[in-house]
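fold-stage: in
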Amino acid sequence: MTAGTDVDGGRERYRGFPPILGPRPRILILGSLPSRASIEAGMYYGHPRNLFWTLMGELVGAGPDLPYEKRARILEARGIALWDVARLASRKASADASMRDVVPNGIPRLCRERRSLRTIFFNGAKAEELFERFVRPRLDAESLRLPGIRLPSTSPANASIPLDAKRRAWRRILDHLDGDASRTTKAPRRSPRA
């Protein structure tokens, strides 16, 4: 399904993007749902002030100066999968707080089919909240063992957290890419706060 919006009673109905997903991902970064700016740009985190690609540039070389397709290939090569919890939802503008009528993506299936996954990271509180509500109840026992870690949102709406603090928090993904992090017996009930 392609991303896009439809107007429905004063609220816009948003459809998300397919995942960025290589053959053996080690981490899955979940957002909530693409913003209007991302949909218009035709890419994840397409708002010019969203810090996601800036951070990916610093961490794995997939910075905003590169073409989008190249960034996606770098994520795949580094073992990073990228998706949103919601496949479809309605909301006012790009405000996650106003999300309604959420239809989740097939994350349980992705977790079952990609047993190389070691950790799930949430790009902000809303992604984690949606995961807990719509995805966790549908996970199999093996997938429930994946640690879940909330990171500060890269959205420009989350400007109260300084960039340096976001950088420190997001560096945690490197431990799960390059280290010996693996599936554990600890379920991602309450993720550590960054």
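fold-stage: in (second)
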Amino acid sequence: MSMNNRPLSGFFLSVGAMILANCASPPSPSPSVAPIDCAFPGTNTPAPAWICDEKISGVGISAVGVAEKSAAGLSFMKDIAAADARGKLATRLKTEVEQMIKNYVGTTGVGNTETVDRLSESITRTIAKENLIGSHIIKSLVGPHGRIYVLIGMNPEARKQALQNSVKSSYDNERALWQRFRGDKAFEELQEQVDKQVPPN
């Protein structure tokens, strides 16, 4: 090989080494995407945790209502979303009552299935009729697509009072039914259960 060809061959060797080095290098990792803990329903848009029913400190029980965008305006939408949330709140309270009665029956062994079902229905019917005194709007937010989300809640004391009122109203209005379910004793013991209850997570 002539002296004139040596620089050129050295250049090709260097290029070849660079190509081999690049081929041997592992591909660059894709940038990691942080997981979204909570998103607005039907979207990938991050949302506050309360939108996904995460428990709020100092709140005994809560529910989220939603209303679609409306030409009637934001105030109207907020009222609709609040009504939706209160309906869900009443349903949650009714579920708590049903579970409380089941726990009571399991502990005492009193009452047949028909009596238990009728008593549960009597108490939960009262919750459905009440205005959920003590419930109030805690947060509200306009999300994607113009929907409004409203968080309605009750503090622990208001929640307990609502449960106690529902039991007492049923007892006052349907004494005959309660007499089939240990009467005064059952009423007192269920009220005690309400006092001892810890709000659900």
